[in-house]
Amino acid sequence: MTTLQYARRVVPGAKIRLREIDAGADGGLTRDEGRARFAELNATLDAMQEELYAAGTHALLLILQGMDTAGKDGAIRNVMLNLNPQGCHVESFKVPTEEELAHDFLWRVHKVVPRKGMVGVFNRSHYEDVLVVRVHELVPEKVWRARYDQINHFERLLADTRTVIVKCFLHISKDEQKERLLAREQDVAKAWKLSAGDWRERERWDDYMAAYEDALNHCSTDYAPWYIIPANRKWYRDLAISEVLVETLRPYRDDWREALEKMSRARLAELAKFRAEQGGGSPTRAGAG
Ligand code: AMP
Ligand code: MG
């Protein structure tokens, strides 16, 4: 298992307590140092995405969860900035529609997981079905309790069929959330993001933290680990997420490059055969002589 400097992996079987984890961590870096390190990681991620896309043997699924204002949108904007848009898609999960509710809770999720070669980012996810659904008692306890196992089985299926899964919980403090909600109120250009519901949900903060702790503790597995991302500082949040992505994808690179080399050699051999059949040499490029 790779060592991470910025994010914390939830070890399967361990019991994490969110209040013991500093949401304001800065890793001993200044903002400028953090941004510089982030830029390096992002460049690596860009190269990795190209290999993932071209090799077409795996998909990457990044799941982002967090309280309102935790920075899911900002993280998506920044972490995906350098990626090739052709190889990415973002899926946002809202209050389920009538049709979605008439199916099992994974139906709408399974339909939009990334295909091989693609990076899929989930802005919220099936975890809402053990978070908001639990806090607001939208289904009986027996139903949401069974979902931890159901989620693990679902993620196991994805992982077994070559979807690399990374789950990030954006951890902000309750004070930081208040600052951000108030800041949005002060800024007309940002107020569109606000809803009275954000303040209402905030009153259930402790219930949400309990629900998050259970989700992180029950559903962090070797094949689909949870990472806790200290997110009070936006630059640190971006840095920590990109580090997790780079370190998660790194072990696959040799295989992807090997697959690509094989594909390239096969294409070139095919072309050489074509030319031989034409009975001529290779055409020269314009200006090449
Ligand atoms: P936002 O991310 O701000 O656009 O808000 C989306 C809203 O949809 C949040 O309040 C979520 O809690 C809610 N939501 C997402 N999934 C579910 C679900 N499965 N059941 C109920 N509410 C959900
Ligand atoms: Mg919101």
In short:
With about 290 residues, the chain is an alpha/beta fold.
Task: Give an overview in words.
It is a single chain. The chain has a single domain (8-174, 204-277), classed as 3-Layer(aba) Sandwich (Rossmann fold), CATH 3.40.50. A 6-stranded mixed beta sheet has the order 1-6-5-2-4-3, sandwiched between helices. It has 11 helices and 6 strands. Helix 1 (31-55) runs parallel beside helix 10. Helices cover 49% and strands 12% of the residues. It is of the alpha/beta class. The protein has helices at 31-55, 72-79, 98-101, 107-110, 132-135, 141-160, 174-186, 196-202, 205-219, 234-249, 253-278; strands at residues 8-9, 59-66, 88-92, 119-123, 163-171, 226-230. It is globular, with a radius of gyration of 22 Å. Bound molecules: adenosine monophosphate (AMP) and magnesium ion. Adenosine monophosphate is lined by residues 93-96, 124, 128-129, 132-133. The site of adenosine monophosphate has 9 residues, from helix 5.
The CATH architecture assignment turns out to be 3-Layer(aba) Sandwich
Strand content: 5-15%
- Categorize the overall geometry: globular
CATH superfamily grouping: P-loop containing nucleotide triphosphate hydrolases
Lateral arrangement of strands in the main beta sheet: 1-6-5-2-4-3
Major sheet size, sense and barrel closure: 6 strands, mixed
Q: What is the helix/strand order?
A: EHEHEHHEHHEHHHEHH
Number-wise, the strands total 6
Provide a count of the helices. Answer: 11
Uncertain spans, ≥5 residues at pLDDT below 50? none
Chain oligomer state: single chain
